[in-house]
Amino acid sequence: MTDVELGGRLVDDQSRCEHYRTELDVVAIRFACCAPYWGCHLCHAECADHPAVVWPADDRQAHAVVCGVCRHTLAVGDYVVADGCPRCGAPFNPGCRLHHHLYFE
């Protein structure tokens, strides 16, 4: 497992947080403004000392997403089309697509 810094109000070791904690909520995302991978956008809003900065549309190669199951990092461009982790096969919550605009231009 790759060692990554996770932030937020986490409730388990697979990056689930107190806001999103279904079986499929195993993704943590970095914002362009800071290093930790956050459990969710609400965790960043509550725990970071600055406003969130989304990833620009021309930075789809940035590894800004981590699978909470195996700690594999994904580039933004790969994550936005993924249904699950390409390394371990863990499914991702399809509802997260509704929040992409909060993380990525």
UniProtKB/TrEMBL annotation:
UniProt-recorded name of the protein: Uncharacterized protein, contains Zn-finger domain of CHY type
GO biological process, one term: protein import into mitochondrial intermembrane space
Every CHY-type domain range: 10-90
Gene Ontology molecular-function annotations: zinc ion binding
Keywords in alphabetical order: Metal-binding, Zinc, Zinc-finger
Secretion signal, residue range per the UniProt entry: none
InterPro entries in alphabetical order: Mito_Tim_assembly_helper, UCP017292, Znf_CHY, Znf_CHY_sf
UniProt organism field: Klenkia brasiliensis
SUPFAM superfamilies found in the cross-reference section: CHY zinc finger-like (SSF161219)
Pfam families listed in its UniProt record: zf-CHY (PF05495)
Keyword Manganese: no
